[in-house]
Specification:
By secondary structure, this protein is of the alpha/beta class. It has 2 domains: 123 residues, Alpha-Beta Complex (Aldehyde Oxidoreductase, domain 3); 147 residues, Alpha-Beta Barrel (TIM Barrel), CATH 3.20.20.70. The chain contains 11 helices and 12 strands. It has a 6-stranded parallel β-sheet with strand order 6-11-10-9-8-7. It has a 4-stranded antiparallel β-sheet with strand order 3-5-1-12, with helices on one face. Strands 2-4 form a two-stranded antiparallel ribbon. α3 packs antiparallel against α4. The radius of gyration is 23 Å and the shape is elongated. 41% of the residues are buried.
Amino acid sequence: MDEKVLKSAEVLFDLAYAEDIGDGDITTNNLISPNVIRRAVLVAKEYGVIAGLPVAEYVFRRFDPNLEWEEKKPDGSKVVSGEVIATYRANFRALLTGERKALNFLQRLSGIASYANRCMETIKGYDVEILDTRKTLPGYRLLDKYAVKMGGASNHRFGLYDMVLIKDNHIQVAGGIKKAVDEIRAHIPKSIKIEVETTNLEQVREALEAEVDIIMLDNMKSKVMARAVQMINGRSKTEASGNMTLKRIRKVAETGVDYISIGALTHSVKALDISQKIID
């Protein structure tokens, strides 16, 4: 896991600690002796792809610096129900108090990775990339996008700062696609890519005339999208967007687009079912 991603998790852990523990775990601290050491395992309870184990390790290590940790199925691995993901040994209090924080990270990120992987399997055989969006949980941007990559998909822009995406409201204010593109080109380095959102073939023609890097085909029917791809004919990259579900993306891939962006990768996460078991 990249250092910047882990740093992001550290900040989130501090927030999670404050909201969950406060002055202390009054249940565990009044039942468990502070010197008891136990071994535990993380177990998958359904099929999926794992992401976030370095974060889970970090959480437990914050409660017990002497944690002994061994990954059995590293990030990016596929798992089945009953499979052991990691084994570890630590202070019993640390295992119990840290459990929910570690699982909250691990289950969310593994859920994202699992869905991303299902999308990749669905469009197998087509020369198209699955992209995420900025529809991430606030504060979790780096972690969510890391999980997308662990599932085999790719990252779109990370924020408003690293790529231009001219959308309908921008176009309306500027007075048209070409005017918006020209105005932006006058103020940014040539190395920054420009993408324009289009919703019909007339806008696609305008975006082509503006010679943008990527043309987004937003909320178009598949037949219209296929016509747009033929019209563009490789002069710009193409990105399909809008209501991209597992049921639809294979048909969209058939149109010949270069990218399919899916907000549901991160905005509608179903956590992967994972549990901690104390084994001795």
